[in-house]
Design a protein that fits this description.
By secondary structure, the chain is α+β, with helices and mostly antiparallel strands. It has eleven helices and nine strands. The protein has two domains: about 90 residues; about 240 residues, BirA Bifunctional Protein, domain 2, CATH 3.30.930. It is elongated, with a radius of gyration of 40 Å. The mean pLDDT is about 90. Bound molecules: 3,4-dihydroxyphenylalanine. The site of 3,4-dihydroxyphenylalanine has 12 residues, from β7, β8 and β9.
């Protein structure tokens, strides 16, 4: 048989064995047998060298035709086998493609996070940055550096959660006294931590969780969320504080809101004030939410006390500043007219889904 005849026979044989292959494995075996390195086509072409040069092109062309025909047949057969395998799998399986898909419920931000982010956004717009501090805090940062007297009532064990580490051996322990470690009762210690390691001018916000030994009731939680603000710069005045907080209140409650600054006392600011906003429910005429007063207290603030600057080594003659602290849970309750702030932490989906 001439090489051309052998090639023609290989083509016919090959197409037949491809058509007969009834699995992916059988098809692959046929491919290797026909076109593989040690396969039949290679075997035939080995005879090419013995041919006179003028006969070689015709044999080469015939070989290419046969290869292409076999390759096309392999591709077609592979597609047919794959389709058959899928059909078989679908027929055998229990998959019901007419069932509706599984819905993924879309989550939403918690009200507290939403208000926190909103306030952060308002202040980032006027150049503030966010600072953080630990929730397990030292007495020094939570009280002493913030100018609290040793006998200040907030320091009592009935107001503050102290962290007592009973695993430490009192003989060898060199860290802080257990009674010096507590759950921070406010975000104000972040003021001290920031001033300790940042040179003024300082414009920061510090949102975070705080802890107090309160029994949960409609207006109290033992863990709640505050937002601290601190500004330290040259020639900061009470007018700057007022302007900043008026701006904040209008951004949160709308441009119709009125604010009222009432003198108050905080150990770490002098003078200090509490800020009320006009009641959003009755517009200021008096209702149940504002207990008939038309006003609702939302934050404490004041000018940074010189003793606080001294505690962090800043010269009170050179630097001045203001600070404020507000309760985010309280603002959430006001804004969304919640009768009980415990709803914010109970995780009841019927409540949370409404927002
Ligand atoms: N830390 C105070 C509290 O939890 C709130 C507060 C009042 C923060 C006055 C301040 C401030 O920064 O200046 O009751």
């Amino acid at each position: 048989m001439s090489l051309i005849e052998q090639l023609t026979a290989l083509g016919a044989d090959g197409l037949a064995s491809i058509a007969a292959a009834d699995s992916a494995a059988a098809l692959d075996a046929a491919r290797v047998d026909l076109l593989g390195k040690k396969g039949r086509l290679t075997g035939i072409l080995r005879g090419l060298g013995a041919l006179p040069a003028d006969e070689r092109p015709a044999v080469g062309a015939a070989a290419n035709r046969v290869r292409t025909a076999i390759e096309d047949a392999l591709t077609t057969r592979k597609a047919a086998l794959d389709a058959a395998a899928l059909d078989a799998q679908l027929a055998a399986g229990t998959l019901d493609i007419t069932l509706p898909g599984r819905a993924r419920p879309i989550g939403a931000q918690h009200l507290i996070s939403r208000i926190r982010d909103e306030i952060v956004e308002v202040f980032c717009g006027i150049g503030y940055t966010v600072a953080e501090g630990p929730e397990v805090e030292l007495d020094f940062y939570n009280f002493t550096a913030l100018n609290h007297e040793p006998q200040h009532p907030a320091r009592s064990a009935s107001d503050t959660f102290y962290v007592v580490d009973r695993s430490t051996d009192a003989e060898t322990w060199t860290g802080p006294e257990p009674s010096d470690v507590l759950m921070r009762t406010h975000t104000s210690p972040v003021q001290i931590r920031t001033m300790e390691h940042t040179k003024p001018p300082i414009y920061i916000l510090a949102p975070g969780k705080v802890y107090r030994r309160d029994v949960p009731d409609p207006t109290h939680l033992p863990q709640f969320t505050q937002m601290e603000g601190l500004v330290v710069d040259r020639d900061v005045t009470f007018a700057d504080l007022r302007g900043t907080l008026d701006y904040l209140c209008r951004e949160i409650f709308g441009s119709q809101v009125r604010t009222r600054f009432r003198p108050h006392f905080f150990p770490f600011t002098e003078p200090s004030a509490e800020v009320d906003v006009s009641c959003n429910v009755c517009g200021g005429t008096g209702c149940r939410t504002c207990k008939g007063t038309g006003w609702i207290e939302i934050l404490g603030c004041g000018m940074v006390d010189p003793n606080v600057f001294a505690a962090v080594g800043l010269d009170p003659e050179e630097w001045s500043g203001f600070a404020f602290g507000l309760g985010i849970d309280r603002i959430a309750a006001l804004r969304y007219d919640l009768p009980d702030i415990r709803m914010l932490v109970e995780g009841d989906m019927r409540f949370l889904r409404q927002f």
